[in-house]
Amino acid sequence: MFKLSEIKELIKLVDESSVQELEIENEGSRLSIRKPGKTEFVQATAVQPQMIAAPQVQPAAAVVSEAAPQADTTSHLHKIVSPMVGTFYRASSPEAGPFVSAGDKVVEKTTVCIIEAMKLMNELDADIKGEIVEVLVENGQLVEYGQPLFLVKPE
Q: pLDDT confidence of 39, banded at 50, 70, 90?
């Protein structure tokens, strides 16, 4: 079980950071803190431990040998990356068109996608003015923290 002082400290850290949500499991207890703008709520519940299969990873030597002959043609492009783990959505609903596509011009604060994490929809805005060159992930795909989502040619 989490101590009240630990929960208060975690709330303070989340509130002062750019992290939108935090989930921690410890000794059969789970703590979730979410903030769409400010901390929305804190919930602690008991959970049953589960076994999770580790993803299969390609050996690093194979990745290096395949990538070595290719020239890096994206070094001049800006990457918009995922700020969290979640599900990537290109549009606000299945019926709506995508927020942006390759060739679209964006400015700072242009919404480029939504990342769903724990049933919370988080709009992701462009952090640079430029042109979308490539969308790197598919609609509905799970994304990791720091994973590149879009390539942008800066203006």
A: very low
